[in-house]
Amino acid sequence: MRWLVSTALQLRVAVAALILILVAGLAVTVLRLRTPGEPFQLFSFIQVLEAGLNDLVLIGATIFFLVTVETRIKRRRALRALHELRSIAHVIDMHQLTKDPEWLLGRGTETGILPPRRMTSFELTRYLDYCSEALSLTAKVATLHVQHFDDDVAVGAVNEIENLTSGLSRKIWQKLMILYAVDRERPATGAASSRVES
To answer: How many CB atoms lie within 10 A of CB 108?
Structure first.
């Protein structure tokens, strides 16, 4: 993430040189203007004024484009990295989807489609807890991407990742609450023998 904090010196030098060339070209053009030998005509003056304003608008837009080029490059890189973090959050969610605490209650039957469920209640609790922590860490890493990069688009992407990981963590915590309730109701002898999916 150093590239978000560091300054692209070569890019800034190139942008400054291009802006100087634009401004110098505009100055040369203005200095070469001569007053016409003909008497003043309003229509000709309006045409020259319109052309001059169009040139100023185009030069201003070009300078704005050049000044913001570094920010746009950093934004594109940040959004690419944040997209990877969003994918990681979905992978974590995919892995915990089949870890259903209902199997500890003996309410399901094996279909043969999924691997045998052999986790104990303790192992399943730890697994889901690790998934929740991994989602939290994913959100924190996303936040670090905009710690020194104040860009509205990147900050919006980070907020989306935080909302995504919070929603996924809520689903995991619902499973954990079921596990806590099961552990409270189950006798100590039956807890050791119960198994869920590995």
So the answer is: 13
Distance CA 133, CA 127 (A): 10
Q: pLDDT tens for residues 50-87?
A: 777 887 888 888 888 888 888 888 888 889 999 999 99
- Residue 2, Cβ density class (10 Å: 0-12 exposed, 13-18 middle, ≥19 buried): exposed
* 10-41 core/surface letters (b: 16 or more CB in 10 A; e: else): eeeeebeeeeeebeeeeeeeeeeeeeeeeeee
Do residues 69 and 11 make contact, with C-beta atoms less than 8 angstroms apart? yes
Q: Based on C-alpha coordinates, what's the Rg of the chain?
A: 31
- First-to-last alpha carbon distance for the chain, in angstroms, is 36
d(CA 35, CA 178): 87
Domain boundaries, the chain: 2-67, 77-193
